[in-house]
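hey m, so remember when u said the tokens were messed up on ur end? i reran from scratch. heres the input so u can diff it against urs
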Amino acid sequence: ALVKDPSLSHGGDGSNMDKEDVEEGNSWEEAVDTDEPKWLRFVAKAALLIAAFLLVSILVEKFAEKEVSKFAKTLMDSIGLPGIFALVFFFDGFPQPFTYVPLIYMAIKGSMPKTSVFMVCALASYTAAISGYWAGNGLSRVECANGMFEYVEKNYPMVPDLMKRKGNTGVCLAALLPVPLAIATWTAGSFRIPFHYFCFAAMCRAPKILVFVLLSRGPSVTSGAA
């Protein structure tokens, strides 16, 4: 189980772990040696995500600019910045596989100022991270929640590994990776990463949000005037 080692509740940034915490059957050196292919997979996944985002953006602007811009404007007029905050909080606050990157795109395409979109998304994501930390911290004390943490260890093995060996630095790295933020924050809470360190590390999601805000283009003059 992910939350059995009490040494995680104290001691610096939570990174002073014993070698025995590495998964059974692997030595400490073996665990370090396996980091490179894991990192390469996650970096490749991040690059593919950005490439796919750019490709879809280009195709939309070429073939469906008017329709998408009109829909985005209607959507943003309906939900506004509070709706964006609520949706981002949900996506980053609860473990689920979906991303709100399309929401960022739609907000910009719907004529929302990029500064406003970035600030609201970053604030919602940070609030979700803090909430996720305390959710993981509380659930780690409940026996019936062990199955959820076992699921995380099986499907996102790099995240628990980062928390074990890097502590709050692992939270920062996980926030930049193409994995659901809640997986990182709930795991950090279950590992009792010191909260004051976590509060700083949780801000590392903002650069990722900024990238997609900057890559998103607003409506063209012709579609906006239509």
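this time it looks ok to me. The chain is about 70% helix and 0% strand. if urs says something different then somethings off w ur setup not the seq
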